[in-house]
Amino acid sequence: MAEFKNVEEIIEASNQAKEEEKRRQEEEAERQRKEAEQRRKNPIPDYEVLFQESVEEAAVKGSGKKSGGKILKHLFLQNQFKIYWSVVLYIIKASPTWAIPLVTTNIINMVTNPDSSTPRMMLINGLVLLVLLVQNIPTHVIYAKFVDKMLRTVGAGLRNTLIKKLQHLSLAYHKELESGKIQAKFLRDIEAVEFLDAHFMKSVIPSLINILISVFIAATKSGVVTLFFLVVIPMNVILIRLFRRPLADSNRKFRKETENISAKMTNMLDMIPVTKAHGLENEEIAALEENIRRLREKGLVVDRNNAFFGSAAWVLSQVLSGVCLFFTGYLALKGQIQVGDVVLYQTYFNQISGNVQSLINLFPELTKGMESIQSVSEIVLSNQVEDNSNKLRLRYVHGSIQFKDVSFRYPNAEEDMIKNFSLDVEPGECIAFVGASGSGKSTIMNMIIGFLQPTGGEMLMDGKPINALNLVDYRKFISVVPQNSILFTGSIRDNITYGIEHVNEHQLQEVIRLANINEFTDKMPDGINTMIGEGGGKLSGGQKQRISIARALIRDPKILILDEATSALDNISEYHVQRAISHLIKGRTTFIVAHRLSTIRDADRIVVMENGRCVEMGTYDELMAKQGKFYELKTLNDMNASEG
Known about the structure:
Blueprint: H1 2-41, H2 48-60, H3 68-77, H4 80-93, H5 95-112, H6 118-134, H7 136-168, H8 171-176, H9 179-221, H10 223-230, H11 232-277, H12 281-333, H13 339-380, E1 401-408, E2 418-425, E3 430-435, H14 441-449, E4 456-461, E5 464-465, H15 471-475, E6 478-481, H16 492-496, H17 505-514, H18 518-521, H19 541-553, E7 559-563, H20 571-584, E8 589-593, E9 605-610, E10 613-618, H21 620-626, H22 629-643
Parallel strand pairs: 3-8, 3-9, 6-7, 7-8
Antiparallel strand pairs: 1-2, 1-4, 4-5, 9-10
């Protein structure tokens, strides 16, 4: 009878596993369907491949890492159809710009040498000009639609690319790069790239079109004057070359200083409670003032270079315009051109000079934009990513973990952080890790999550090497309750159900009960819909930790990691949190990093770590009876607790 009952239990467990797998597959399929539908309705490009191709092209051509121009080229190649049409529409809509000087010249020449057809020709010229002016309204609207849609798409694509890359980058990368610098790249640099794109489409291309058409019209009138016009371009190119390096250097230094002060500002905001508690406000102000001073100095260098460059460009333009006036006037005096042609050539020369001047004035902004492209590429081109391509996809996790002589060494470290660590964990076991700070406990937890990969030995999950698994799939079966609860601005409900689209209300209420959250939500006017402020600032430490536990519970994980989940709590909060944890660990493979050793009395095994090695392992009673390292730690722990 007992055997029959065991068979029934096995069959029931198998059916439950199948139903759970089916539910997960249906949820995944629904999520993918919604994502595909969203992409179809509102496509946002991903430019990571484009950045990579641009760098490879720059490397092949020997231009090193400075690939901003290549990236910009590839960005516009992806939108070349819209660019071609925008050029055509611009030529049509801007035609009055070139028609007005021609009409003016015709009328002056006709009035200077009138005949019987003069009134009729003046009327024809006027009607042609009127038609060209009126058509500007619809063509400009269509032109703006093409250009603006393209620019908005490029901006959205850059932000989308950066966000995707940040999500895929390793935890080690995020620890190396300060969040303030990331924010500066996301906000300031992408905005500068958007300005660069807008300037290119709305200023650079139109200016080049204006120059080419003006030169072409002048060439049909006089080759000598056209040659004079062409002198403008090389002289301005020389001017740009003189200022290119100082402008690029000053913009790069200003950009880096902006990133530094953004990072300092973020740190300052995080440290405000500590700063005020120790009366260090003036010291913090002084430190930030020094950063602000350096930023001001770097900004003044940029401004000075821009001012000098702009002034030199304006003087050159005016000098050349005056020379053109005297030159064409001299030709008219000699009878080589008509009087009206002086106006024509002067107008076109001023247009050419003005457009060249516009391009020159844009050069600082273009330089800034190129530097910002380079800044964004520092993140997009980083190779510190988790590569899950062609990795084993998981449909179910039982929860067995094996460490076989595992070692781990951090990059640039002189010795291993974990040394020849071995451990076999069966599904449903509760394993606690204890040891002094720096003994390797958190490193092992990060290896279990997949944040870190062994540099020696082998780590298996359900008998499969963890470095062969698709970590995105694997982590869907893991929940982590960290020492410091990570909450976001929103309601208690939002924080519990984070990342879960469809939540069963009965299941949510059961999780809230098990985590003992209703002990404080029942006293709130909006219950679990209460807004908790930034980082859960309106809640106590114990309340925040119970929300973290509920977030873990509702995911029904197969593997659970509790990283010193009660170390920062008072006795009352610890009691409530410990009760919630006791519900959380049932039937799950659980790893506990413990600070208060009394909380792990019921663990199946306790692993004592010292200098990256396991020095003791056993149950609570076994280790206490042995009176070894664990006994020593427990004695010190009790002494500290009694003194507290």
